[in-house]
Amino acid sequence: TPVEEKTPVEEKTPVKKTLELIEIDLDNIGVPSIITEIMRKLNGRECKAFDKFLSEVDEEVLESFAETVTQCWKKQQEDGKDKIFSIYDYQMTIVLAVEKKYDTLRKTELKNNVGGVMLSRDADSWTSLIISLDDNMRITNIDSELITEASFSSYDWKIVNVIKSQLLLRRK
Description:
Elements: H1 33-42, H2 48-56, H3 59-79, E1 83-87, E2 92-98, H4 104-120, E3 126-133, E4 139-147, H5 154-171
């Protein structure tokens, strides 16, 4: 009788996964143009909440996000005021800052508002994504930051707590 030969068993060696930068043609993957522009302007800067949001939601939610940004921008064109909206599931607040009024002091004020949202949601950290758009709805400035209590001076933290109280009163 013939003897059956056993195929030698290959030893499995652990595979190390490495991350590498991959070029993606953002114009051809079905992402709304404002999201594409946000991704380009972030240019590799870390914004985990936004990255997670993009990777987990479907095309319909992306379209809804883009429409929200567009509606905020249009309203901002009419009244000249900053606009803010939050995506609570991702602990992230997007601020559309008026382009002509955006400086260091204004950035601090906007960050305080985001801190108020963070506290009103009982969170220890929150992502602030501040975007300035010009009259053609092109991004002129973008800042992203993961904020915690340590992100604020003691004076600003008091302001954040006042904003939190005001937000909680509005909910009632």
